[in-house]
UniProtKB/TrEMBL annotation:
Organism domain of life: Bacteria
Official protein name in the record: Ferritin-like domain-containing protein
SUPFAM superfamilies: Ferritin-like (SSF47240)
Biological source species: Chryseobacterium gilvum
Classification of source organism: Bacteria, Pseudomonadati, Bacteroidota, Flavobacteriia, Flavobacteriales
């Protein structure tokens, strides 16, 4: 009985996938129709949101770099600032690849995460390792927001048949993930232990 239910649901999901593929094929023929779909509108809106966010992140990284104590962390923030500029130009290519104009839409989420980082700078002692430990967590919150966004948008791009956009979004996703891991390494190697020794 249980086996039968599984078979039925597998058959149903295979059918759904086939249907989607057909829709993707047709969408190429009727691009106008696709442009008016709710999913396409959401996709473009989400791109505008992250386009705004990346811009805000550049300024935030600058402040975090100035505030950081450890040279390794300052360097990591500087490197990621350069990468973030690349993310912005990649997003412009994504907009172009789907025949949309690059536009920024205020992203309240990133504003909140960045505000938290500014609060950390205000409430921790200059030159302390505690500040660096806290800054790393603040930066990782930014990365995780980006990872969730790029991961989801890359998958949507694949589903909608936007291969070029998917490729660009996946490249950025990979850099955000590497940055996140790099920050963990810096915390574990240079910062957390010393921060724990502070008053
Ligand atoms: Fe980014
Ligand atoms: Fe990032």
């Amino acid at each position: 009985m249980a086996t039968k239910t599984t078979e039925t649901s597998t058959a149903a999901s295979t059918e759904a996938v086939t249907d989607k593929k057909l829709t993707v094929g047709n969408a190429k023929v009727d691009e106008n129709e696709m442009k008016h779909s709710s999913l396409h509108k959401f996709f473009v809106d989400a791109l505008k949101d992250i386009y705004y966010a990346e811009d805000a992140i550049i300024t935030a990284l600058e402040k975090m770099q100035e505030a950081a104590t450890t040279e390794e962390l300052k360097d990591a923030f500087e490197d990621h600032q350069l990468q973030t500029k690349k993310h912005i130009s990649r997003l412009e290519k994504v907009f172009k690849s789907i025949n949309e104009e690059p536009e920024r839409k205020k992203c309240e989420a990133i504003e909140g995460i960045i505000k938290e980082g500014e609060e950390i700078i205000k409430t921790t002692k200059e030159g302390s390792m505690t500040r660096d430990a806290a800054l790393i967590i603040a930066a990782q919150k930014v990365e995780h927001y980006e990872i969730a966004t790029y991961g989801g948008l890359a998958q949507l791009a694949i589903t909608m048949g936007h291969d070029k956009a998917a490729d660009l979004l996946e490249r950025t996703l990979q850099e955000e993930e590497e940055t996140d891991h790099n920050l963990t390494d810096i915390a574990e190697t240079f910062i957390n232990f010393d921060a724990e020794q502070e008053d």
